[in-house]
Specification:
There is one protein chain. This protein has 247 residues and is α/β, with parallel strands linked by helices. It has one domain: Spore Coat Polysaccharide Biosynthesis Protein SpsA, Chain A (Alpha-Beta Complex), CATH 3.90.550.10. The protein is 44% helix and 21% strand. It has helices spanning 4-11, 25-34, 37-42, 60-66, 80-94, 113-122, 144-161, 177-182, 192-202, 225-241; strands at residues 13-21, 45-53, 70-73, 98-102, 127-137, 172-176, 207-214. It has a seven-stranded mixed beta sheet with strand order 3-2-1-4-6-5-7, with helices on both faces. β2 (45-53), α4 and β3 (70-73) form a beta-alpha-beta unit. α7 (144-161) packs parallel to α10 (225-241) and α9 (192-202) packs parallel to α10 (225-241). It starts with a helix and ends in a 6-residue tail after the last helix.
């Protein structure tokens, strides 16, 4: 005879929540505290938190380990794209059913995680993003130049790929396991989100989004508006004509 608890356990799905860090000690603790583990459990998800760290020197790793979080140190150099690609490999090895990725600098609210997962289930989406540009941006959370740049890059992506997205450069994503497995990526830095979008388009994944609120970040920003913007556009343009990554 199966007990009710055994049946419920079999029905639960496993979720990995990935936080990419590099000197994020100022916001990390708050983000960890906001992760709605109980709500996720009510929705049928067992959540597992991991961090991929890009050579932090400010105590980020120490804080994470003190909180009992699995930390993967990225190898081969710094760069968000490099770290995320290595983290995706760790995620696929876990066999978990879905992946949430969000920046742990306080700009994204983990309480929105259930909304992305519910959207993914309701519409049978392969990928769902949290859209800042369709939601609310707090005063001072995004500079005017970054706001303009985000719109230009997003419009460029839609024009090139003919697949709607309202916020190309968001750092808040939800993936089904199969979507992560299908993405072929080689980004090193902040162009990674653009390449993920390109890979989704090439693989004809079903793409959804949820409006979110975007907050002021904790700690120092690492994005260089012009340099990274050009790198993002180049990645969009190159991947438009190549299904697999090229240098």
């Amino acid at each position: 005879m199966y007990e009710v608890g055994d049946i419920m356990s079999e029905l639960m799905r496993n979720l990995t929540i990935l936080l990419p860090t590099r000197n994020e000690v100022e916001g990390l603790g708050m983000v960890i505290d906001q992760i709605p583990s109980e709500k996720l459990h009510e929705l049928g998800w067992n959540s597992h938190l991991i961090i991929v760290d890009g050579y932090s020197t400010d105590g980020t790793v120490t804080l994470a380990k003190e909180r009992g979080i699995t930390v993967y140190g990225q190898s081969g150099g710094i760069g968000k794209g490099l770290g995320l690609r290595q983290a995706f490999t760790h995620y696929l090895e876990s066999g978990n059913d879905a992946l949430i990725m969000l920046d742990p600098d306080g700009t994204y609210n983990p309480l929105d995680i259930p909304h992305l997962l519910s959207k993914m289930d309701e519409g049978d989406y392969d990928v769902v993003i949290g859209s800042r540009l369709r939601g609310r941006i707090d005063d001072g959370a995004m500079s005017k130049i970054n706001y303009l740049g985000n719109h230009i890059l997003t419009w460029s992506a839609v024009a090139l790929y003919r697949t709607f997205v309202s916020d190309l450069c968001t750092g808040f994503w939800a993936f089904k396991k199969e979507a992560v497995a299908e993405m072929k990526l080689n980004s090193i830095s902040f162009e990674i989100e653009a390449e993920m979008y390109a890979a989704c388009c090439h693989n004809k994944m079903k793409f959804g989004e949820v409006p979110i609120r975007y907050h002021n970040r904790k700690g120092k920003a690492k994005l260089s508006s012009l340099q990274d913007g050009l790198r993002i556009f180049r990645k969009l343009f190159v991947r438009r004509f190549f299904k697999k990554p090229v240098n």
